[in-house]
Recover the amino acids of this structure.
């Protein structure tokens, strides 16, 4: 049971909320993941109603009744955040809790943004009515808690549990297609549940999505909750398969294909630069609001790596046979120094730098006596570490 899996302090706090006249139903990701894999998450979202055994309130008095929750939180000196639609967020130890009013969402005409609706809050809605606004059936499962009696009850008005166990992604209603973010969530959930299939009734209607108002903010939010490399490839495939129109700022994604193991913005940027060139990397950089300087530094790092990768023992031998004042001006040392200065990028490129003729493992072991540097011009001193590394390594082979 969920009740026995959560900390006693948290259960006691939730019971206090119920004692103040509220019923609590866990909704969203927590019940889905618990039913799917018995995972006990740390994000608990509750739909909160007046308890049926308390004095009946009027529909218009719900806002005032809800104030009892704020009173309890203030009494317990728990910081809380008020959001629209009577949503309240708090942190309780390692757990993040959200309490929200039951509501229905009325779509606005010709609005395909994430805020495409007007909300009507109503504490007397049935679960079937209030869950209808959710996206997938697997996200419309609730677990009603009865902490006074140590009981819990699954609420499943749309057959989400059966779809979860059979690996089906189904939308609840046609309202699904009003919200462009739900197109992105479809991708994320298909990747999260690897063996799930998009139900034919949903797949056949993907072409009805209007993605012209798709925002970069929500795209990035869903992208980095998922596997970014696979997410981008799946996004492009669905866009092409269903001939969907996307904002101009997204079009460049459809011209690239990414490695499945990319995880961060920097990794995507590096991949675009390596395989598609600077112009595409610049578009990625702007999309992710990365600085132009970071892109230039990454490009410079890659150029230095490619330069060092081509070095031979003859190149090193020629450098070491030169007088030291000449050797310290050699481009080889400048490129090695550049690699060191920008070494934060080496983790992005999935390259075995030990395969180079010289790499970090060599110069990181070298100690420089300050007295040695005193004999050199100031402008040459920063290159001496790499010169000495080459000298020690190759003179002893």
């Amino acid at each position: 049971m969920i009740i026995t899996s959560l900390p006693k302090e948290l259960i006691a706090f939730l019971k206090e909320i119920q004692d103040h006249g509220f019923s609590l139903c866990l909704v969203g990701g927590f019940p889905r993941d618990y039913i799917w894999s018995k995972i006990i998450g740390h994000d608990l979202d509750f739909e909160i109603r007046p308890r049926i055994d308390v004095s009946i309130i009027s529909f218009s008095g719900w806002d005032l009744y809800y104030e009892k929750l704020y009173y309890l939180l203030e009494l317990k000196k728990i910081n809380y955040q008020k959001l629209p639609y009577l949503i309240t967020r708090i942190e309780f130890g390692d757990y993040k809790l959200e309490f929200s009013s039951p509501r229905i969402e009325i779509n606005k005409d010709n609005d395909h943004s994430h805020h495409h609706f007007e909300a009507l809050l109503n504490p007397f809605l049935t679960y079937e009515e209030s869950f209808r606004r959710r996206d997938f059936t697997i996200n419309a499962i609730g677990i009603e808690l009865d902490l006074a009696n140590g009981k819990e009850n699954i609420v499943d008005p749309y057959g989400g549990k059966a779809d979860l166990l059979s690996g089906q992604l189904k939308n609840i209603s046609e309202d699904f297609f009003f919200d462009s973010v739900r197109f992105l969530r479809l991708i994320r959930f298909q990747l999260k549940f690897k063996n799930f299939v998009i139900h034919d009734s949903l797949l056949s209607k993907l072409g009805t999505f209007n993605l012209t108002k798709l925002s970069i903010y929500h795209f990035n939010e869903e992208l980095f909750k998922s596997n970014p490399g696979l997410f981008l490839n799946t996004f492009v495939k669905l866009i092409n398969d269903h001939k969907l129109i996307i904002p101009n700022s997204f079009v460049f994604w459809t011209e690239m294909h990414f490695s499945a193991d990319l995880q961060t913005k920097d990794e995507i940027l590096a991949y675009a630069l390596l395989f598609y060139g600077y112009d595409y990397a610049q578009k990625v950089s702007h999309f992710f609001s990365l600085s132009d300087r970071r892109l230039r530094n990454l490009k410079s790092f890659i150029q230095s790596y490619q330069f060092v990768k081509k070095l031979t023992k003859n190149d090193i031998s020629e450098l070491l046979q030169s007088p030291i004042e000449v050797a310290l001006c050699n481009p080889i040392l400048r490129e090695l120094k550049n690699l060191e200065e920008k070494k934060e990028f080496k983790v992005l490129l999935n390259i075995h730098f030990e395969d180079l003729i010289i790499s970090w493992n060599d110069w990181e072991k070298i100690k420089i006596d300050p007295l040695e540097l005193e004999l050199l011009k100031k402008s040459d001193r920063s290159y001496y570490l790499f010169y000495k590394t080459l000298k020690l390594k190759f003179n002893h082979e």
